[in-house]
Specification:
- This protein folds into 2 domains: 139 residues, 3-Layer(aba) Sandwich (Rossmann fold), CATH 3.40.50.2020; 55 residues, PRTase-like (Ybab, Chain: A, 2-Layer Sandwich).
- The chain is 35% helix and 21% strand.
- The chain contains 6 helices and 8 strands.
- The protein is globular and about 45 Å long.
- The C terminus is likely disordered.
């Protein structure tokens, strides 16, 4: 159990400090993931940025992800997506358009504070406050892989073990503090799991704009 996101991020940072990183950049998936990313960036002396991907929600079950869409507009569906009641091609198209609009809104808001980081040739740490199905992270990894980073590290406080296996083919390393087999929801592993608002993400990006020297390079 973590006290809050900062506590989880500090524990995660201890593991990451042991790695050899090349000009690292930490990318958080908004919104909660950016709180984790800000702490990691501070502890590692790395650049902070966001990676924008959104889950595609199941009909009548907003917490269930049937897939995700990345900042590049490409859609990724879970293997079970079309078996979920109410999921049709029309529904997928409408949900895709809805989440694309949200990505565009967030891009306009967050990129006004900080232009996208150039990740080419760099160690990229991608994080969130936890992972359930992994669809959003997979979308983010696909977008990042096309930008030819030096390596990609998925670093999260908590995720079910079967979900972590989905990432290994698309990244160089996975770091996760808790891998419970009885995973229910991310919030169950935090004493304080308050919702993070856009204003908090904007503040964290604004405060991180001063250039920092990476702690570890190779």
């Amino acid at each position: 159990m973590f006290r809050n996101r900062e506590d989880a991020a500090l524990q995660l940072a201890k593991r990451l400090k042991a790695l050899k990183l090349k000009d690292p950049v930490v990318l958080g998936i908004p919104r909660g993931g950016v709180v984790i990313a800000a702490v990691l960036a501070r502890e590692l002396g790395a650049e902070l940025d966001v990676v924008l991907s959104r889950k595609l929600r199941a009909p009548y079950q907003a917490e269930l992800a049937i897939g995700a869409i990345g900042e590049d507009g490409e859609v990724y569906l879970n293997s079970f997506a079309r078996e979920v009641p109410g999921v049709t091609e029309t529904y997928i198209r409408e949900e895709r358009d809805h989440q694309s609009a949200e990505i565009a809104r967030r891009s306009k808001l967050f990129r006004a504070e900080k232009p996208p980081a150039d990740v080419t040739g760099r160690s990229v740490i991608v994080t969130d406050d936890g992972i359930a199905t992994g669809s959003t992270m997979l979308a983010a990894l696909h977008v990042l892989g096309a930008q030819k980073p030096h390596d990609i590290i998925v670093a999260v406080p908590v995720a079910p073990p079967e979900t972590l296996e989905k990432f290994r083919p698309r990244c160089s390393r996975v770091e996760c503090l808790l891998t419970p087999s009885d995973f229910g929801a991310i919030g169950q592993f935090y004493a304080d799991f308050q919702q993070v608002e856009d204003e908090e993400v904007v503040r964290l990006l604004r405060e991180s704009r001063a250039p920092q020297k990476a702690v570890k390079t190779c």
